[in-house]
Structure formats: structure tokens, C-alpha cells
Amino acid sequence: MVLGEHDSSSPVEEQTANPDPQPVSDAPPARAAAAAEGDGEVESLARRIQEALAVGSRHRFWETQPVGQFKDARDGSLPEGPIEPPIPVSAVKQEPYNLPALYEWTTCDIDDDQTCAEVYNLLTNNYVEDDENMFRFNYSKEFLRWALRPPGYFKAWHIGVRVKATKKLVAFITGVPARIRVRDEVVRMAEVNFLCVHKKLRSKRLAPVMIKEVTRRVHLENIWQAAYTAGVVLPTPITTCRYWHRSLNPKKLIDVGFSRLGARMTMSRTIRLYKLPEATVTPGFRKMELRDVAAVTRLLRDYLSQFVVAPDFDENDVEHWLLPLENVVDSFVVESPETHEVTDFCSFYSLPSSILNNPNYSGLKAAYSYYNVAMRTPLLQLMNDALIVAKQKDYDVFNALDLMHNEVFLKELKFGPGDGQLHYYLYNYRLRSALQPSELGLVLL
């Protein structure tokens, strides 16, 4: 599905007057916000004002797409649901779109070690960076295989572009299938992610044809909707979430520029402020096992039913997405010592970033809050235990969005608001009005 377009801060070598449409499938690696004083805040405010003023003139491409339009935002008469009806699959273009002459399509078999290494290297060196070019996402090979092979995945949706002469992989885009419930309707969707074009080729107009090609392949499976995220404002977010950060290794975070010392704070006081207990406190808190899948599925389905937009997980999905996988996803349950019933659940996934141009550190180990269900245990206590195990596993920072019920624990557990926002979008599906982050039950990688 079409996800985005170049904005004024996109790292392209040559920008045309009419920018190529380009998916922006993730916010940049989030950073802790600067203290609310000084030039940083003024510059941030000025940038946001400029972005808001430019929104109307920046999205000519999006005006041709079946997405919510800014001009329709206050029109309550528009129906909720698909914007355009599906067409017969037989009417979908059967042949791949034409690439520029020097390039060719390739389907990336992520199970193949050599291909997986090529994808890893492309993303590691060319994927999303923060605005100051200090951090770049560094997805591991194990993470990529987990993210791209959910139940029922299509290999044909893992799309690469190679140079014909050398066979070098220079661009990549992916989709995975998902069932996402919007109010009372469960909709088959694609989640499109990992659009990456080699830095030296961003003037070659590869992104638009890549978007059209993944869209074509999704349509061939009779799927007509998508969910996606972007760190920039496009027409039109269904909600906007903010990243919050909890320091686990504050000295390192300050040393690398992720965060900075607060006013009237010393390093030793900061380290004491963020110190966590050595062990978890909830009786029956333990690592999730295969035998817990059915119970976790029941907990999760019941919990997610209260949100307007949320995934429709079955046991196969829960086994894939939430069963612990070393250095990829960690999940924990609370098992009642008396009844042995699984009463609560929490999880986080691992998404490190490369630290650029720093002589002392090369990587930042970041945990991202995933799905958490607190039924018997207070959410504050459950998430404090999650922080403790993340610290035990040597994570530097624990990140969370302010969606679902996360606001309950963010300030209490010493999370600070970051400078990164994440905008959620639906393709070819209209909501009558934007949601509050607390009405969203969907976490996209």
C-alpha cells in the first residue's frame, strides 16, 4: 500500500519540485526530548509550524489515493469503511511494473542466509535515521525473519530491486498480512514496512514504482486495505502517538546524546533516580512458555476488544508474535501461585539503533513496549517488573507509545516524553473522526 512521500527533511540527494511518493514506514529512532528551555524548544516549535503550513502543498500525490483527505476532515456525512470498492482480482495487473533499465525485481527469500544478510546490510546502512543523523535503526537478521514471516505470509510481498549488472541489492519493500478489527468489522489488511532505497540512488525514482508493485502484489491476494505508520504528517492520520523513554542506562544515554542531564542534576543523582530493584516483585511473574499461548490469547483478545482499532489475534498469531525469541521479543506472564491461572501478561521487542560517529559507543540497545494486559496485577507494578527484566537483559532504554492504557504508567515509572511522534494511517479505509491514542490497540513494528 502507498505509505508516504518525501518531505522537506527527507535524506535525498536530489529533490524535484514534485517529490516522488515514498513510504515512510517508521518514525526515526526516537530520542529523549530536550529540557523545555533554550533554543532547542524554539527550533522544534518553528519546525512544527512550518510543517503545518506546508501540509496543504506537500501532498499532491496523496490527493490521488484512497485515503482520508484533509479537506474532508470535518465532513461527518462521509461513510465509514472502504473508500474505494475492490475490483475483480482478474482485473489486477498481472505483470510487474517496469523498473528503470539498469534495475530488476527480485523476491527476497528471507530464509536464505545470503539474502537475509543482503537485506540486513542494506537496512543497516541506509534505513531510517533521526533528524540529527545520530542514530539509525539496526534491525537484526532474527528480527527481520520474525517480522516478515507471520502466519500466512506471502514470500512475493518481500520485494527487492537489484542492479542488473552486479546483482547488488539496492532497494527493498515488504508487506505482511494481518487481520485488523475496526470497531466491529475484522478487515484483512497488509502492513507495509521497510521501504529502503540505497542513499546513492534516491534520485532514481525507484520508490514510486516499488510502492505500485507492492500494491499490485497485495491486490493479487484480494486484499484492499492497509495499516501503516509514519513519522511525518500525511493525509490523514487516524491518530498520533508520542514516544516516551525510560532510562535504564542513563550515563550511556547522556554520553551518546540520546538524553541530557536535567537542570540542577548531577550524573550520580541521575543514576540514583533511575535505579531499579534487582528482582521483580510480582508473585508468579515468569517468562512466557508455549503452554501459555491459549491463556495469553484469551487475555489479549478480551483486552483488545475495548479499542476502536486493534489486531484480531488467534493462537497462531500469539505463538508467532509473542512467544519469546532471544534478542527479538520478550514476553512474561503472571501465574497465580494458588490457582496456576495466567492472570496478566507483558511484552517488549528489541530494536537496537546504531550510534553514528561516536568514538566510544557503536550501538544503543532499546526495548519497545509491545502488548501488556493487567487483569489482577496493577499495570504500574506489571510494567515496573518489565523494566526490571529489561535492565537485567542490559537494555539501555525502554520506549513506549502513549496508546492503549500506557498513559497510566508513563509518568509514574519515570518515562519522559520524547521528540518523536508516530502517526497511524489506514489505506482505503475511512474513519469518521480521528481517535485518541488511548482508543488505539495496535502496535506496528
TrEMBL record:
<dbReference type="Pfam" id="PF02799">
    <property type="entry name" value="NMT_C"/>
</dbReference>
<feature type="compositionally biased region" description="Low complexity">
    <location>
        <begin position="27"/>
        <end position="36"/>
    </location>
</feature>
<dbReference type="InterPro" id="IPR022678">
    <property type="entry name" value="NMT_CS"/>
</dbReference>
<dbReference type="InterPro" id="IPR022677">
    <property type="entry name" value="NMT_C"/>
</dbReference>
<dbReference type="InterPro" id="IPR022676">
    <property type="entry name" value="NMT_N"/>
</dbReference>
<protein>
    <recommendedName>
        <fullName>Glycylpeptide N-tetradecanoyltransferase</fullName>
        <ecNumber>2.3.1.97</ecNumber>
    </recommendedName>
</protein>
<dbReference type="GO" id="GO:0005829">
    <property type="term" value="C:cytosol"/>
</dbReference>
<dbReference type="GO" id="GO:0072657">
    <property type="term" value="P:protein localization to membrane"/>
</dbReference>
<keyword id="KW-0808">Transferase</keyword>
<dbReference type="GO" id="GO:0004379">
    <property type="term" value="F:glycylpeptide N-tetradecanoyltransferase activity"/>
</dbReference>
<keyword id="KW-0012">Acyltransferase</keyword>
<dbReference type="InterPro" id="IPR016181">
    <property type="entry name" value="Acyl_CoA_acyltransferase"/>
</dbReference>
<comment type="function">
    <text>Adds a myristoyl group to the N-terminal glycine residue of certain cellular proteins.</text>
</comment>
<feature type="compositionally biased region" description="Polar residues">
    <location>
        <begin position="9"/>
        <end position="19"/>
    </location>
</feature>
<dbReference type="Pfam" id="PF01233">
    <property type="entry name" value="NMT"/>
</dbReference>
<feature type="domain" description="Glycylpeptide N-tetradecanoyltransferase N-terminal">
    <location>
        <begin position="82"/>
        <end position="241"/>
    </location>
</feature>
<dbReference type="InterPro" id="IPR000903">
    <property type="entry name" value="NMT"/>
</dbReference>
<feature type="domain" description="Glycylpeptide N-tetradecanoyltransferase C-terminal">
    <location>
        <begin position="255"/>
        <end position="437"/>
    </location>
</feature>
<feature type="region of interest" description="Disordered">
    <location>
        <begin position="69"/>
        <end position="89"/>
    </location>
</feature>
<feature type="region of interest" description="Disordered">
    <location>
        <begin position="1"/>
        <end position="43"/>
    </location>
</feature>
<comment type="similarity">
    <text>Belongs to the NMT family.</text>
</comment>
